[in-house]
Every structure is written in structure tokens, then in C-alpha cells.
Model the fold of this input.
Amino acid sequence: MAQLQGQISAYLEDKLLDHILGTASYTMPTDVYLALYEDDPTDADTGTEVTAGGYARQVATFAAASGGAAVTDADVEFGRFTEGVTVTHWGARDADVAGNLLLRGPLVDDSTLGAADSQFDVTKSGNLVTYTWDGTGTDPAITATNPKPGDVVLVDGDNFSAANNGRFTVVTAGVNYFTVENEDGVAEDNKTLGATGSITRLTPVSLSLPNKSKLTIEAGDMTVRLD
Done:
């Protein structure tokens, strides 16, 4: 099953800033409704929401946020659909009909690059940071298409500088290396991922659902981040 990874919308960013700065108060919705889209809803809330028979927005609940991310704590089920449908994105809204877009993101498949003993050198040029496997430890099988430009990588190396960990979009990649934009990154050598460290590639996917099917987003498969 594809996972859901996303960030807050421009609408919610403005409301939260107003609330925090005292410009205007904002009342959070009682429920957050998960919606499915056939394309990117965008910050302007212009996407095409699924309209197939049997479809309706569903309430999504989250565990307490930690480390700048919140994860769903219960399954969310859609369908049965009475016709085929293709889903590429999701949005979280403040009403079961119409309302405002709060969160959005693509459906993604995730895969791991490397293992605990995979060792990397990190170099920086301007705002670009490059992670290169130096041949030590498990081969992460990085190529020009794994990860490919446009993919998101979640870098969380136990032994990496905190400035080199985070959620980044890949700019370019090649054999044994990938490059991201990270103005805060720093150069460092001979850094293994470590026992609990990881680099995760998130690749956007399109999900085709046939007539009479259901779609279940399992607890933990939807993550929202502030970074």
C-alpha cells in the first residue's frame, strides 16, 4: 500500500501565524477529514477531488506530534467505489463537504537506501549538499534514478550532523551519490548511518482502484511534517 506524506497548506500556515501573532484568532476544526484527489490539490486548493460513487471524505485522527511530524493513529477506509478511480494525492480538510484545505501531499512508495554500516561523505557547494557512499559498508544502490530528481529523501543518520538530517528534495543523482538543496548543511566525512539511522526515498505513485474496491489507509501510513 502506498503511504501518504504531506505538509500544511498555505491557508493553514496563514491561520496559524495570525493565531500565534495575535493578528486574528483561529479555531481548529473538531474533525479533520481526509480527501482523495486525482491530481495535486496545490496550495491554491485547485485539485480534482474524487467523485466516484461510494466515495466520501473520512475522518482522520492523529497521535501527538513529535519531532515536527504527526502520524495517524487509526485506519481510514474509503469505498466501496462503484466505479474505477485513480488516486495520486490526498488532502486533509476542515469539513466533510467543501470547507478549507489544511494539509496536502502525494501518495508515495518508500524504500530504504543502505544499512547501518553504509558510510557516506557529505560535501557542500553553495546551497547544494551531496551525500556520497564511499564504498564502505552495505552498498545503498544509489543510481541516477534511485533516488531520481524530484523524489523526497528523509535523511536520519545517527552519526550525521543534525544539519545534514531532514526532509529534502533530490536535485540530481548518479552512481553512489545524490544531491539536495540544504543551505544549512555541512561537510563531513566517513559517517555511517548507525544502528537506528536511515535514508528513506519517497517516490510519488498513482494508485488505480477498480470498481467495487475499498481503500484503507492504515494507522501510521499518513505522516504530516512542518519542515
The chain is about 5% helix and 45% strand. The chain has a mean pLDDT of 94. The longest helix spans residues 10-21. The radius of gyration is 19 Å.
